[in-house]
Structures are given as C-alpha cells and as structure tokens.
Amino acid sequence: MARFFTPGWVLRHVLMVVVTAGCFGMAYWQWTRALEGSMLSWGYSFQWPLFGLAAVALWVREVQMTLRESRGESVQSEEPPLVSPSIVETPCRSAPPRSSACSSRRLIP
User: Fold this and answer.
1) For residues 92 and 95, what is the distance between their CA atoms, to the nearest angstrom?
2) Residue 43: what are its φ and ψ, rounded to 5°?
3) pLDDT along the chain (109 residues), means of 10
C-alpha cells in the first residue's frame, strides 16, 4: 500500500477528492437555482453528480490497474485491437487531376 503514497498518487487522491467535491457542490448550487424556478438548472443538478461519479470511477480504475500490475497480471485487453480501414490511392481516369469530381482516395473495408 505504500505505492499509493508516492507524490504522484497523493496528487491523484487529492485531485479526485477536489473534483468530486466540486462537482457535488455545483450540483447543490444548480439544485438551489432549480428550486428558485430555473428550468435549465434541473438538468444540470442531475448532470453534475454524474461528472463527480465519473471522476471516482476513473480513480478506482487507476487503482485497480496499479494493483494488477504489481501482481504481475496483464492490464492489456485480451481482445484484438480495432483496425481502421485502409486508405489506398487510386488514380482518377475520368476527371482531370485536382478536380472535385475526382476522389483520389477510397476506403477499403
């Protein structure tokens, strides 16, 4: 557990607490505005807590990945990476070069 008290991790812990508290503070502020009659604030009052929970989820994921690395487990996904389609150059025969009607690139699935 000492690995989580390095300067980098302490900064992550503090940042997570500050961001989460800030998000919940903003949610409270929007909630009070919504009760005063601001209809737009109703949406924000539910949105801000989700941002705070996303910060907590990211922090939990980082901790889990660090623990897996320390145990020697792979943190890489077992699934193959997604491959983007290849782009190939094709000459234009029906239109002059630099014509907007001529597409010099096409995607191959």
Assistant:
1) 6
2) -65, -45
3) 86 95 96 92 93 95 90 69 58 57 54
Q: Which two tokens stand for residue 50?
A: 């989700």
In this structure, the strands spanning 86-89 and 105-108 are: antiparallel
Write down the residue that tokens 């940042």 correspond to. 15
**pTM (predicted TM-score):** 0.62
DSSP-derived letter for residue 80 is P
51 contacts 72 by C-beta, under 8 angstroms: no
Alpha carbon of 52 to those of 1, 13, 34, 35, 70: distances in Å? 25, 14, 19, 21, 28
Residue 11 corresponds to which amino acid?
L
